[in-house]
Write a structure and sequence with these properties.
single chain, OB fold (Dihydrolipoamide Acetyltransferase, E2P), 8 strands, about 0% helix
């Protein structure tokens, strides 16, 4: 038989580092092939001409050029249209 009193449970004792998401290169800046433009969770920004989205939704440059951000209307699965930012490299 143990002679140690029961210890309670500990809550809120986990702390994970941030994921460093966000826009890494902004409009008007020069970019080289393969460079990361946007790190994101989900498709908050869309990949346009000269860019591609990887499996974790990161947008990379597919060619050398200058970054441009545009506002586009996108149709959702339900038929609703919403505004989304499109990232292109020209």
């Amino acid at each position: 038989m143990s002679h140690v009193k029961a210890g309670g449970t500990s809550k809120n004792n986990h702390n994970s580092p941030g994921q460093r998401l966000g826009v890494k290169l902004f409009g008007g800046q020069k970019v080289k092939t393969g460079q990361v433009i946007v790190r994101q969770t989900g498709l908050t920004k869309r990949a346009g001409n000269g860019t591609f989205a990887s499996r974790n939704f990161t947008i990379h440059a597919a060619k050398d050029g200058v970054i441009k951000f545009q506002d586009r209307r996108v149709r959702l699965f339900t038929g609703k249209t919403v505004h989304r930012t499109e990232v292109t490299v020209e």
